[in-house]
Amino acid sequence: QVQLEESGPGLVKPSQTLSLTCTVAGGSITVPYFYWSWIRQPPGKGLEWMGAIDTSGSTYYSPSLKSRTSISRDTSKNQFTLQLTSLTPEDTAVYYCSQGMHWGEGAQVTVSS
């Protein structure tokens, strides 16, 4: 069974860059035909898909976030990473990494000075 776990800072300041890492256990991120995604949920709002990286390393981004988002991977550690630049308080959310039906528990990120 694939298990995912998000890690990163819980509090970041406006204008800074957020970096979150998803560590995957029970399956390789290089297995063909899988997409590894980042999704977030701001308080009181619905889920927002941010982007994904596939097993070849190709990346896909939400048009609304593309200019500020970068997803990369470290196959030696079986991890993939989200970077989100130019943070504002509107980026406050619970951030999830997922692969299909498998989701991490989520990481609360608060953007505040």
Residues in helices, as a percent range: under 10%
Q: Total helix count?
A: 0
Mean pLDDT reading: 96
Reported for the largest beta sheet, the result is:
7 strands, mixed
**Rg on CA atoms, Å:** 13 Å
Structural features, described:
By secondary structure, this protein is an all-beta fold. It is built from no helices and eleven strands. Strands 2, 4, 5, 6, 9, 10 and 11 form a seven-stranded mixed sheet that branches. A hairpin with a 2-residue loop joins strand 9 (93-99) and strand 10. The radius of gyration is 13 Å and the shape is globular. The mean pLDDT is 96. 0% of the residues lie in helices and 51% in strands. The relative contact order is 0.32.
